[in-house]
Amino acid sequence: MELDGAIDGSDDSEEAADLFRVVGRQVRLLRERAGLTRRELGERLGYSEELIRSLERGRRTPQPEFLDAADDLLSAGGLLRSTMEDVKRAKARTRVKHPAWFKDYARLEADAVELSYYSNHTVPGLFQTEAHTRALYAMRKPLLDDELIEQRVTSRLARQTVLTKRPAPMVSCVIEEAILRRPIGEWDVHEEQLQELVRVGGLRNVELQVMPLDRPEHAGLGGPFILLTPTRKPQVGYLEVQNVSRLITDPEEVRILAARYGCIRSQALTPRESLALIERLLKDR
Questions:
Q1: pTM (whole model) above 0.85
Q2: Is 30 helix (H, G, I), strand (E, B) or coil?
Q3: Cβ atoms 61, 17 nearer than 8 A
């Protein structure tokens, strides 16, 4: 299941993108001056190497807490911290323009206090690395043009701030073991994606589970789905297959999906067992 959104091509969006690239270059220069690799900087600040790479390329919006911590760690003397207000204003002026069929879900996701995913073919978009996302769009048939691929990659990465907003939503996810074994984008890309799953699965607000291939019973054979609970609103469901989507608000249909999700979670490995499986796959390569 993949959720898409197209980026608005307005002047405000272009100006914001330019600003984020400038800030990214500053981070890279300061990091290199400090003699740190992206991985080392990420480890010291509590971020993944992939996120640092995306920030330096201007593909991720630099969050205030990152700029504040990086300014101190890299001895920037207030250079990065001084960009915080400009970044906030740029974010406020820009917007992600989603297709009509996606807008309702996107609004609910941004406001969610709880998110639950069952995915049988792909890593959920909120957990994807930039390289993995790009590989998925590059292999689409019919082919997407390069500009549209970049727009959709940027859109998906922008949605991932949902995971780290404050207060953070509770997120649970069950993915099929087959996803872990299919090297989308070749091994280097896949290895980075598995490492990102380990990192995300270690977040306090995230519970990641794997449905092993050897289970004789499986409650999720009807296909992937998402359950989300917006702030002070009833839980809803979301289905998407072959570019056909449906937002489910009928209480009885949502109840059935929620009951099914409970069965799926009970049949899957525990979060601890799931992370151990991913780490074994990384080690055995």
A1: no
A2: helix
A3: no
